[in-house]
């Protein structure tokens, strides 16, 4: 019979998976530590206007955005950060005025950029010989209703074909002023991606040549992928039963 004292434990005395190394970097839950809490989620599925039938109603977890990383970032991440900061300084722009924070999380390098400097940073990443991020694979919108003053985020994935590297740029804007400069002039392939993000999230990309809806009808009210957008819908008959609209169904949280 094994003794309880033989159970592998971390520095705080908590039991850990014996198949993992006993180091803080390999323990679960490290991603949220040191980051910024933007919400406390209760339940599993979001709705809260009915009885809990799932067993997840008592779930409480903190939703955090990863915090800034400290050097060294590791591998080629430091090289890219150094080259970008040096190139901005050569243009007379202090890096700390353009780069809000640098995040290394889940094996990805993300530069959080002040929106007024987005176009210059993107052009520098594209044109500098030591960087050469020639391809932007699109922009994705994210809505954090509880991230006050920066509820809307735009995330760009940039790839260097020359150096075989992938990084991310992230820009935020408040709901009250949802404007972000368009990157169409730097990466023309962003044309339809910016239209889609505008359509679904309401981010206005200043300088876009034709910022119109791409999925929803032109007269559609609201932006359907925002977290505060009503589920809406209509009742549906299925195998003789009447299924209520999503916003009228029983809650599962």
From TrEMBL:
<dbReference type="InterPro" id="IPR001268">
    <property type="entry name" value="NADH_UbQ_OxRdtase_30kDa_su"/>
</dbReference>
<comment type="function">
    <text>NDH-1 shuttles electrons from NADH, via FMN and iron-sulfur (Fe-S) centers, to quinones in the respiratory chain. The immediate electron acceptor for the enzyme in this species is believed to be a menaquinone. Couples the redox reaction to proton translocation (for every two electrons transferred, four hydrogen ions are translocated across the cytoplasmic membrane), and thus conserves the redox energy in a proton gradient.</text>
</comment>
<dbReference type="InterPro" id="IPR037232">
    <property type="entry name" value="NADH_quin_OxRdtase_su_C/D-like"/>
</dbReference>
<keyword id="KW-0813">Transport</keyword>
<keyword id="KW-1003">Cell membrane</keyword>
<feature type="domain" description="NADH:ubiquinone oxidoreductase 30kDa subunit">
    <location>
        <begin position="112"/>
        <end position="233"/>
    </location>
</feature>
<keyword id="KW-1278">Translocase</keyword>
<dbReference type="Pfam" id="PF00329">
    <property type="entry name" value="Complex1_30kDa"/>
</dbReference>
<dbReference type="GO" id="GO:0050136">
    <property type="term" value="F:NADH dehydrogenase (quinone) (non-electrogenic) activity"/>
</dbReference>
<keyword id="KW-0560">Oxidoreductase</keyword>
<keyword id="KW-0874">Quinone</keyword>
<comment type="subunit">
    <text>NDH-1 is composed of 14 different subunits. Subunits NuoB, C, D, E, F, and G constitute the peripheral sector of the complex.</text>
</comment>
<keyword id="KW-0472">Membrane</keyword>
<protein>
    <recommendedName>
        <fullName>NADH-quinone oxidoreductase subunit C</fullName>
        <ecNumber>7.1.1.-</ecNumber>
    </recommendedName>
</protein>
<feature type="region of interest" description="Disordered">
    <location>
        <begin position="1"/>
        <end position="34"/>
    </location>
</feature>
<dbReference type="InterPro" id="IPR010218">
    <property type="entry name" value="NADH_DH_suC"/>
</dbReference>
<keyword id="KW-0520">NAD</keyword>
<comment type="similarity">
    <text>Belongs to the complex I 30 kDa subunit family.</text>
</comment>
């Amino acid at each position: 019979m094994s003794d309880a004292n033989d159970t592998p434990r971390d520095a705080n005395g908590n039991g850990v998976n014996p198949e993992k190394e006993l180091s803080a970097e390999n323990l679960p839950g490290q991603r949220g530590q040191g980051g910024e809490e933007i919400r406390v989620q209760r339940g599993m599925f979001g709705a809260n206007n009915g009885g809990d039938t799932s067993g997840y109603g008592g779930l409480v977890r903190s939703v955090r955005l990863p915090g800034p990383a400290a050097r060294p970032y590791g591998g080629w991440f430091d090289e890219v950060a150094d080259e970008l900061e040096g190139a901005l300084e050569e243009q007379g722009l202090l890096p700390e005025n353009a780069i809000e924070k640098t995040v290394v999380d889940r094996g990805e390098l993300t530069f959080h950029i002040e929106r007024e400097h987005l176009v210059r940073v993107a052009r520098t990443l594209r044109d500098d010989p030591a960087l050469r991020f020639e391809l932007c694979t699109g922009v994705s919108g994210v809505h954090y209703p509880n991230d006050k003053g920066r509820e809307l985020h735009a995330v760009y994935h940039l790839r260097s074909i020359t150096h075989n590297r992938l990084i991310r740029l992230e820009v935020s804007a408040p709901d009250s002023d949802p404007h972000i400069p368009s990157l169409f002039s730097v990466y023309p392939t962003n044309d339809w991606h910016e239209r889609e993000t505008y359509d679904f999230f309401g981010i206005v990309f200043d300088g876009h040549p034709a910022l119109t809806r791409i999925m929803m009808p032109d007269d559609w009210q609201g932006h359907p992928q925002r977290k505060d957008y009503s589920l809406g819908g209509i009742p549906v008959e299925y195998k003789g039963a009447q299924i209520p609209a999503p916003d009228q169904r029983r809650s599962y949280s």
